[in-house]
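Sample entry follows:

:::
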Amino acid sequence: MNKKDISIQLYTTRNFQPYAPILEFVKEVGVVNLELFGLESINIEDFKNLMDINNITSQSTHVGFESLKDTQNIIDRANQLNIKHVIVPAPPARKDSDFKNTFDMNEEEWISFGKDLSSYVSKFEDAGLTLGYHNHSYEFKPLASGKLPIECMMEQNENLKLEIDLGWTVAGGADPIEWIKRYSNKIIACHLKDFYSKDKDMLDHDNQSAIGDGFIDWNQLISSMKNTNCELYILEHDDPKDYKDYVLRSIENLKEI
């Protein structure tokens, strides 16, 4: 892969702020696109200036589901940064609860969430944007009926898009190739996430590696992704010890793919 075809999820670098030197580093390594998170709360003018200075674009962003209620605000903010894809990364947060409990829903609740999320699709489409969902591992854990949460959501609207996190799909015990094929028309972006060992807890962030330093077969996955509508290949590590080393190692390894 050419480094100009690789994006970085800004969440990877959140613990290394301020963002000015981070974007300078991104420019230095030759990456030209970032995926943002927290669009609803960032200072748009300041961030746009940072991106302009470093000739960096942002074609996609994560936003909290709750922020969709103020739909026009999200659309306006996305337009100011020329963002095309708005991605919800999880169901509504549960107050005073661990993140994983957010996904502890039964089939009826997953269907209801899928319908709620889908109810915004046409509003974003009317504004020239796409609305999608980003999976974690939990959406691939079977419900009591045997059905998967990802199915409960995605079948509620044919135009609801998917940013498939390939690493989390593996961590959920699913075969990513199967889901790449199944949702080939829905996939508009993917997260590249790798793990040192499949025999260790893949929910432990310390098990996350640079792309290509882990056990996932990226040649096979990226080859399969080329048969989808995927536009963005995005690096993400949830808690790197050294984000620069993570990015540089990942880019170097992806050169051979």
User: Anything to note?
Assistant: The chain has one domain: 3-254. Residues 107-118 form the longest helix (12 residues). The domain at 3-254 is CATH 3.20.20.150 (TIM Barrel). DSSP finds ten helices and ten strands in the chain.
